[in-house]
Design goal:
The protein has 425 residues and is of the alpha+beta class. The chain has 18 helices and 18 strands. It folds into four domains: 80 residues, SH3 type barrels, CATH 2.30.30; 69 residues, SH3 type barrels (Roll), CATH 2.30.30; 100 residues, MgtE N-terminal fold; 112 residues, CBS-domain, CATH 3.10.580. This is CBS domain-containing protein.
Length: 425
């Protein structure tokens, strides 16, 4: 890392996403963020990279183990600690916490917002934050002007991110899957997490909440105003919404149910009546449901809906009217693979699988798991005593309940150990 050459300047926002290679040229991951220490005196010091490796795991790579860094490639010594990165109280993440932060220019010309942060390698090998790419805010003819300024020419760089905007961070999340956004939110300080979550639209936030652990999603929903929180719950899958409502304080849960759309609230109330480890507590009330006279083309169109998970899309539940749960009598199911073998105009009633085992709402998770595994299915119907479909249990919901409560936050080796203990009683 030592060099007699002039300082090498790297802009962090451009560095994010850059491939990280070992000395042999094999890619080990991609840069996710840069960790800096903001000091009371002197320029902030960059101490390491947060690198996303296989399995979406984020690990810390000290800059002392980086032999080359630029916007095209990062080369490391090959020694990467596989422990999941956890931000310390003294550390600040550039992309997650500094971008969009408002600062005041010391020359008295007004305020600006940070859009990028530059770090430079010093002759002693240290990396310091030296420059900020900022855009003027406020009023005046120069509003919107973008320029580079020395880090010591602004105040507020080390301020609390409470009023920090989320524009730049949201831009980096735009193409990520909900589970990956959930990973990003888990790494943020509480206030920053709520701010970013609040800027997501209802559908996007609903998808992300379904991927978060209990503590994080309760914290986010509790931080939203009641109307917004109710709208987000309306957008969630009923089973996930019910799980979340069950985790909230009783008074808050009651107020949210009153503000939700009546049909959505009714589904949630129905699911809350079941124990969480039964088929009724695991099921969703909104699988793909069609009458026997519907065509295969119609079934495929329903399976393509974005709000239908892959596990539920693999099976169409064919019933007598009404088609909303609780439906009329369950006639059977049509497997997506079977439907793809038939012409689009074929009626669902002519290719029914009538031999599928249905669950009762009170059946335990053990029976659910055995049936899914025995028949290699991704979902099972849940029916009441009259044979009416009341919901469906999918394999992903079962996995959520079989894994440890903190599986989203745990390292893979910890999760493997817990699952092994569970499997062996």
């Amino acid at each position: 890392m030592r060099s007699s050459a002039p300082p090498s300047r790297v802009y962090v926002a451009r560095l994010a996403g850059t491939p990280v290679f070992d000395p042999l040229g094999d890619q080990v991951g991609r840069v996710h963020d840069v960790v800096v220490l903001v000091r009371a005196k002197g320029s902030p010091r960059a101490v390491g990279l947060v690198v996303e490796v296989s399995g979406k795991r984020r690990v810390f790579v000290p800059l002392t183990r980086v032999t080359s860094v630029d916007a095209g490639a990062v080369i490391t010594t090959g020694l990467v600690n596989i422990r999941r990165f956890s931000r310390r109280a003294t550390e600040t993440l550039v992309v997650a916490e500094l971008l969009d932060r408002p600062v005041t220019l010391r020359d008295g010309s007004g305020s600006a917002v940070i859009e990028d942060v530059a770090m430079e390698q010093q002759r002693n090998g240290d990396w310091l934050v030296t420059k900020l790419f900022v855009r003027r805010s406020g009023r005046g003819l120069r509003r919107g002007e973008a320029f580079v300024v020395d880090v010591n020419e602004v105040t507020g760089f080390a301020a609390s991110p409470a009023q920090q905007g989320a524009t730049a961070l949201l831009a980096t999340l735009e193409d990520l899957k909900p589970a990956d956004i959930a990973d990003v939110l888990r790494d943020l300080p509480d206030a920053r997490r709520l701010e970013v979550a609040a800027e997501l639209d209802d559908e996007r936030l609903a998808d992300v909440l379904e991927e978060l652990g209990e503590e994080d999603r309760v914290s986010i929903v509790s931080g939203l105003d009641l109307e917004r929180a109710a709208d987000v719950l309306d957008a969630m899958q009923p089973d996930d919404a019910a799980d979340l409502v069950a985790e909230l304080p009783t008074e808050t849960a009651s107020e949210l149910l009153e503000r939700m759309e009546p049909d959505e609230a009714e589904d949630v109330r129905r699911l809350l009546a079941y124990d969480e480890h039964t088929a009724g507590g695991l099921m969703t009330t909104e699988p793909v449901i069609l009458p026997p006279e519907a065509t295969i083309a119609t079934a495929l169109a329903h399976a393509r809906r974005q709000d239908v998970t892959p596990a539920l899309a693999a099976m169409v539940f064919v019933v007598r009217p009404p088609l909303e749960t609780p439906t009329g009598k369950l006639l059977g199911v049509v497997h997506l693979q079977e439907a793809l073998r038939e012409p689009p105009h074929q009626l669902l009633g002519s290719i029914l699988d009538k031999d599928i085992d249905a669950l009762a709402p009170e059946d335990g998770i053990g029976k659910v798991t055995r049936l899914l595994a025995t028949y290699n299915l991704t979902a099972l119907p849940v029916v009441d005593a009259g044979g009416r479909l009341v919901g469906a249990v999918s394999v992903d919901d079962v996995l959520d309940h079989l894994l440890p409560d903190d599986w989203r936050d745990a390292d893979d080796d910890v999760t493997d150990e817990a699952m092994t203990r569970s499997a062996h009683g």
